Task: structure prediction
Amino acid sequence: MELPLAYKERMEQLLGEDYSSYIKHFEKERHYGLRSNALKINKDKLEAISPFQIKPIEYINNGFYYQENEQPAKHPYYYAGLYYIQEPSAMTPANVFPIEKGDKVLDLCAAPGGKSTELGAKLQGTGILFSNDISNSRAKGLLKNIELSGITNVIVSSEPSEKLAHHFKGYFDKILVDAPCSGEGMFRKDPSMIKNWSAESVLEYATLQKQIILDAATMLKPGGLLLYSTCTFAPEENEAVIQHLLDHHLGFTIEPLPKSNGFDNGKPEWINSSHTELENCIRLWPHKINGEGHFIALLRKEETASNTTVKDYSYKKNNQQVKIVTEFIEENLLLDFDYTRIDIIQNKAYYLPEGMPNVKGLRLLRTGWYLGEIKKDRFEPSQSLAMGLSLNQAKHAIDFSVNQEAVIRYLKGESLRIEANKGWNLVGVDGYPLGWGKSNNNMLKNKYYTGWRWM
Result:
């Protein structure tokens, strides 16, 4: 693997006698990982039913290694949202972030969703998960992964950080900034990133990161926690960005993080900083752990008397349309809904998170749990609704075994001849929902979302 000379010279200067070990890691195979989705299944059960060989990741409490020749994305359990495929070290930021039930959480640079889906699982349907990515196309992929995971208390947006900072001053309990970066920690995983690296690009990213972290600090509640992470080694993009925040926002402190074998401290000396608390940051090296490279810092904002000025959401519901939705719910589901939180936007029904904030003027892809669409006075349930349920919450369900041919046929969008209750049925595999079907005369019309089908 050919690395730029300027990059090698810098890394040798930073690492000293550790440099040769770092260079040798490129000769080794990369590691492949997935983690269990706590909204659907716990780690032990996933390990017990896994159809392929997996081994626990020693520094991630719900993560597993899998073999390169396996195809976990081509299995019905993936379509049921039981796990998320993610590079092991990239699991670390969301894994160590202390999320509590009821938190209002912002994932500021969220696509493709690896960290958002773990934050949502930690919330367990409470509070609010606000997932944002400035790229609208990437935000669409983010939305799919969130819905596949069964997260219902979510808002997905596509805005620059400065616009959100203007809108949500002092609002969020926890903010994760997995900042865009030069990607040095992922050179082994994705060698194509090497050709885009330059000393100039490192400085360009650092400038962007400094603006993003200041915007995040503005949105954080007094006493709240901000977790900053990158997948790069450059001190300019790591310690220097944290120092920039400390210099511009008095009252922030760097909190200690749990460390596993192979985790290094932050290096204030690399930027000639007097902030010795930068040692509380952690850096993951690919020659010291079974994974790629990452940098993580956890910061707390001091308690003050100031309050957020964010207003509550203003509903625009149509009572007749809400009635159509509630009739479907009562006829087909065994679920307690707070019907006052159902909102109708352009004939589409959403179940908004409790305490939903005003989002007027923002470019949004999702506000809450998308329940389905009203079509000529009838309700068509969504794929998102199916994925946010458990199979026993449907009055009528069809539960296939993972070994049945019908599972793959269903995921491909085929209609199935099967005995079932007339009307809407929630279709699942081994007790986990996959999507909807509508039965009539022992023929199940397939309602699995076209864009998600098995190819």
Notes: The chain has a mean pLDDT of 96.
